[in-house]
Amino acid sequence: xxxxxxxxxxxxxxxxxxxxxxxxxxxxxxxxxxxxxxxxxxxxxxxxxxxxxxxxxxxxxxxxxxxxxxxxxxxxxxxxxxxxxxxxxxxxxxxxxxxxxxxxxxxxxxxxxxxxxxxxxxxxxxxxxxxxxxxxxxxxxxxxxxxxxxxxxxxxxxxxxxxxxxxxxxxxxxxxxxxxxxxxxxxxxxxxxxxxxxxxxxxxxxxxxxxxxxxxxxxxxxxxxxxxxxxxxxxxxxxxxxxxxxxxxxxxxxxxxxxxxxxxxxxxxxxxxxxxxxxxxxxxxxxxxxxxxxxxxxxxxxxxxxxxxxxxxxxxxxxxxxxxxxxxxxxxxxxxxxxxxxxxxxxxxxxxxxxxxxxxxxxxxxxxxxxxxxxxxxxxxxxxxxxxxxxxxxxxxxxxxxxxxxxxxxxxxxxxxxxxxxxxxxxxxxxxxxxxxxxxxxxxxxxxxxxxxxxxxxxxxxxxxxxxxxxxxxxxxxxxxxxxxxxxxxxxxxxxxxx
Length: 499
Known about the structure:
mainly alpha
């Protein structure tokens, strides 16, 4: 039998006097501040303080919702219902909808309990004079009034933030229970969340703000930690998308999933290494006067003729030659499938090449996008401000950074790809092209690449500090790429291939 969530009635009315007593203390505090500062107040002051108060959330409301999640999932999980719904995903979605009704109901009861104590307070749709006071004991109202034009928007934001957080927790708990079928594991997960909320409120340092639960339960607390209300909302939105996309994994053929994971592990390992290296770079420069743009530059600094750092050099080779490794695997597959039938279908070797060369250029754009977004997100996560102007390199504006990373980055990787293809066609051995690329890395050492006329490593972000124009690097890469393209067309038209 399905356990449906009903609007909280007699069985939940016991929270009204509990919340009421807490709201009464908040009201008395508002009266005291009003008399001391000789400023007016209204009912919004009480409502916003009562709905954003972390003590009330952490020690009463959040545990109640966690208890309800565990109770609902364990009571409604039956195999007969799973057969009726047809899949775990549909059962999880149904439970989420039922829990959403319960959440809205209890949130309304929570706010109604506070409003019952606001009877007699002035009514207004504007911020009160007290809310603009920057003083101890008034942090909630001051921070919210600084970011929202009206108290109604602040209240709506808190309502939606709390609702979204609980929805994500419910989805995670439901997926965990559907996979494990273990009440002990489910209860341990929910208990861990409660402990995390307590520890992150009083024990965790400010640098742990991304895993601090109060930042996602209280709008005031989130703004105070992140400096803006958009960041916690964005994090929750990303988690919600991940949860929804993960629903299809529940009940799937896990041996097949493990097989696919085994096949894709090099890409996962490569991605994990880049992520780890970027995080270590952020830790290295923590405390420096840097922006996210500065962190972006130093992360992909590479080398220059005036300066050489073995770690930056190694990271460049691993990132960009690592990308070329996967390109070579793709090329190896294409060459293995090359036969007379595919040539006849495409009418010529040149058309055959251009068909999947377009895909590789698309992979370049995707790869650069992931690198840029990943670096900027990690920079923001480590409190580097998202400013266009560079503090570490004040002479560099944002447009040249974008131009160098995208235009020269694309041309450099395009040159690598064209060179790999040409060497592979001549030698009929894909891996020999990787050896050629690795050998060419000598041109990244100081004094070797005179005036940057050789097209290797010209997308190093450190070149932004050089006097050589960025357009010159683009021209060099473009000229060499055109020469390689011409050579490829000639080879494909003249060379005989044995299938």
